[in-house]
Amino acid sequence: MKQTALNEVHRRMGARMVEFGGWEMPVEYSGIVEEHLAVRTRAGLFDVSHMGEIEVRGPKAFDLLQFLTPNDLSRLQIFQAQYSALMCPNGSAVDDCVIHRRSEDDFFICVNAANTASDFHHIASRNPFHSPAEAEVRDVSEHYSQLALQGPASAAILRKVSDADLDRLKTYWFCKSECCGVPGLLARTGYTGEDGFEFYFAPSESEEVWDALLDAGETFGLVPVGLGARNTLRLEAAYPLYGHELDGDTTLLEANLGWICKLEKGDFIGRDALARQKEHGVQKKLVGFEMAERGVARDGYPVWIDGKQQGRVTSGSYSPYLKKNIGLAYIPTECAGPGRELEIEIRGKRVRARQTPLPFYKRK
Amino acid sequence: MYPEELLYTKDHEWIRVDGTTGAIGITDHAQKELGDIVFVELPQIGAHLTVKESLGTVESVKAVADIYSPVTGEVTAINPKLQNSPELLNSDPHGEGWLIQVALRDRSETESLMSAEEYEAYLKKGSAH
Question: Is A266 left (phi over 0), alpha (psi -120 to 50) or beta?
Answer without folding.
Answer: left
